[in-house]
Design a protein that fits this description.
This protein is of the alpha/beta class. About 25% of the residues lie in helices and about 20% in strands. It is built from 9 helices and 19 strands. The strands form 4 sheets. The chain has an 8-stranded parallel beta sheet, with helices on both faces. Strands 11-12-13-19-15-16 form a 6-stranded antiparallel beta sheet. It starts with 16 loop residues before the first helix and ends in a 13-residue tail after the last strand. Bound molecules: the ligand COc1ccc([C@@H]2N[C@@H](C)[C@@H](O)[C@H]2O)cc1. The site of ligand 1KN has 8 residues, from loops.
Length: about 450
Amino acid sequence: QIELKHGSHRIGKRTDAVMQKWRGYGLGQFIHWGLYAIPGGEWNGKQYNGAAEWIRSWNGIPKSTYDSLIYKFNPVNFNAEEWAVTAKQMGARYVTITTKHHDGFCLWPSKYTRYTIANSPWKKDIMKPLVDAYDKQGIDVILYFSVMDWNHPGWRYDIKTKEDSIAFEGFKQFTRNQLLELLTLYPTAKGLWFDGTWDKSWIKQAAFADELETEMRKFRPGLIIGSRFRADENGKRHFDSNGVLMGDYEQGWERKIPNKIEDVHGNDWDCVMTVPENQWGYNKAWKGHIKTRNELLEMTAKCVSLGGNFVLNFGPQGDGAIRKEEKQLAAQIGDWMKTNSEAIYNCEYAGLEKQDWGYFTKKTGSDKLYMIVFNVPVSGALKVKLPANTSIGKSYLLAQPAQLLNAEEISGTEYFIHLKNTAAGNPFVVVLEPTAKKASGNTYDKAKT
Ligand SMILES: COc1ccc([C@@H]2N[C@@H](C)[C@@H](O)[C@H]2O)cc1
């Protein structure tokens, strides 16, 4: 145990109601929107190979030319209601929205910089209509905020000189001012999703960031802040020098999903995922592999089966419309969630051995188990291993609860759930209602070897 002043201030999961609700969300939406949506990954007919929201860092565009995009931001097709309804149709229970990405452009009329929506042709606050529209759909809002801010004169990647230090002090106050401003303007926001916190300049601010986190939590009791916000005094990020998670949930699962329960170290976590390989902001040319509905459903099931949430990214166009491919995916996912969301919402890690047919989830606060099936075996028999003192009371398709399935005991703790129909074209859910096991005669001796 290393003595730490600015390490984690909590061991284990938060147990309050706000975090318990967050834990049960299951499926979320990420929105990346800003000036980068105007070029959409292309400039003067040339395509930028990186992620579209990073196009400013491309030496194919003079920085000042990119920064002048503020004078072109006029999203005439922006409709907050439409975005929120799309998320509702998908079955998202929370949304994380970029208030300010690395380019420093603020989607709210911040008092602390001119580089905001207020000085664009659009003029009006974007965040307020969005927060209100998502609140109206019953979808909780988390505010994404990039500490790294390429527009602010005080930003530094590292603090090397006296001048750096003086400039960065101003930048730190600016950052604090903006965060308290966001919490004041959008009081229904449930949390802050920090990004752009990996550079040495910010890592060196362990004390400042720790005090700021404490101040924000006091300002907004219940506020949810992930592990990416701050480093401890030894520069350790996400996990402090004693290996304890910083913040309320692990924020390291970006475009990747844990494989086994040990990978999540007993913490809350969410995975944020792009539809293409690596595009958060709108990119005209969706090159490479575009994930399908079934892939995204499997990612959702896998995340929930390991105790996390899956957050799918949408990158609205520069005119404010959501691209048709994302709308289609939202509708396809939502169509599946309409029948099967009981196996996703307020579910958790079931503690059972993973089987090839798919993923187990367990309803929080109940013994009810769900089998989310993606791979039907040629035998039509789904293997289930239960703890010794448990057997299967009832099993049935979530979509046809009246039709009981035959659960055959094949050894003390193993069962086969026999499917009637093995030609499933879609992922489906089998419900298991376990019961205490009656001591049954057929206990087979273990082979002597
Ligand atoms: C390789 O370094 C980065 C840095 C920032 C990111 C940002 N985090 C995602 C949530 C997006 O905002 C992306 O721009 C991704 C990769």
